[in-house]
Amino acid sequence: MGEILQRLVVQSTLELDRALVEAEAVNPSPQTPTFAQTPTFAQTPTQVLGTGTKLSLNGRILPLAWKQWQVGGVIRTGISDVGVQQLFGLELLSTRNWTRQPIQWFSNPLSTPLVLVAHHRDAYRYLDITEFAQQMGWQFQAQGDTLALTSAPARLDSIREEAHLWGFRIILDLDRPTPWHVSRSPSEGVIILDAIANPSLIEQFTPLEPVEDEEDEGDGEDEEVEGDEKDNEALDNQPTIQVETNQTKTTIGVSIPDGLQLHVFSLPNPNRLVIELRPDAMVEKDILWAPGIWWRQRTVTLGDTRFPVVWLEVDPKNPQVNLKPIWSNPTTQVGTAPLIKTAQLWNAAAAINGGFFNRNNQLPLGAIRRDGYWYSGPILNRGAIAWTDQHQFKFGRLSLQETLITANGERFPILFLNSGYVQAGISRYTPAWGVTYTPLTDNEVIWVVQNNQITAQLPGGVAGEESFVIPVNGYLLTNRGHDPSAIAKSLTIGTTVQIEQKTLPIEFNNYPHILGAGPLLLQNRQIVLDAKAENFSNAFAQQSAIRSAIGITANGTLIIAAMHNRVGGRGPNLTETAQLMQQLGAVDALNLDGGSSTGLYLGGHLLDRSPHTAARVHNGLGLFRPYK
After folding, report:
1. Which residues neighbour 490 within 8 Å (Cβ) at sequence distance 6 or greater?
2. Mean pLDDT, rounded, for 569-574
3. Model pTM score
């Protein structure tokens, strides 16, 4: 009874509406994967035979971390857990034991779930699917970085559509369980099954060629067109289905009406894939993914509004958890990349997108400090999070004050350090920026400083045309916009200079790691949102959008969250973002870059969205675990 109640809690947002489908799933089927007990075998692989990041599923290449090892003469296969869910369709259920992962896959959701053994290696959590694959008749063969999986495709016999008060349900009848995965955007979902469709289905769900409107004349034309538009409005609210098939797979395209979300799950007896389009499709999860790391997701209520939220709760005091800023290219601050690629490049187990950047020149617009080095300085007194390796955290608005002091005591303010933000005055670029600096505006004047001495003065020329080497034992100064003659008289070749630097507030200087974004949302449990004080535009301040945020609870637990469109509407505004972080338990919180930049990464994949809908980003926050 306890297991049934636990499963009902996990499925609480969907269970009532699935009752009609689940009523058929009473008796076990010989084709349903069931195990009486959890398989017993060595948890940690001692003799690794192969590892890689690609899976060939009946010839279709998918990004999926895998590992094979040998125990007692038996070759065992592990696949990353988030990848198993997203690319095979196995639903990961809530668990408080990171070494045991219950799953649901073409099985009765009210029965005792199958439990797979899990273990961590590198930045992934692998599920041992050896017995599971054997029962399914799957065959594995390692081919370098790729694990080839072959299986007999299922047969897709029929597609049934149902309209409900809450939305729509599409049921795919299959002759056996088969892998499937979903790619989605706000307006369309694509489900790919390892199944062959009945030819009649292809005809039934092949879209008709559009018919061009005939030109009519007369007074009745406007009336006819108006009626057609009304008919089209009604059709637009209905999902359309397209089916394509080949020898090994079938692709189902489903349009998603406005205000609805896509959720896909499987059921047994008979084997079915169920596609639901409903206002609220979030499935709750509470998974202890690793010691000190919880993966949680649920719909959070603010007044009469509900938001789907996916977040990680991280115990920074756990010795197996380490937090660092990351960016798209470790050798330079120039460039962007998908968050998945950046996290994998740095070997991060988890990550969230970070601060702002210029999409055109791909340069950072905010604070990035790692291990005491400023890779990008703060701008505009914007919000930031800072932390030490001893698990001390600080949230606040941050500025960096730098002054260039000559041997004669002359002082020149440096406005920005290693930044893509452009303003008239002096900026400074160190080796942390990269090997070279390319002028961002026309006619900059550049001074080369080596060993605290001016060694050259160079014309910057046309913006973007020529790059200047940043000395490893110094830095470059560049003057934009202002008449350089007065500065040039003081910064002659051979002049000795030094840098005076301090953070405002001064306490930030004690923190070796800093990531800036903004606006600041919470401090000491209070909403302190002030977008204007952080020089954000009114349009940004009023916008409702998908959001990323980070916060900390009273007991020191970090909350790293992605918040998506409210049920039936757009994402949260900044005030709602602050309130959602309060609901999750944060006492201090910071807004990160959002919209298409939002992405929450764990174990090789994005948790909160399809990677096809996520933009390339410059930087992020990486969570690291010790490698084994």
Report:
1. 406, 408, 410, 412
2. 96
3. 0.88
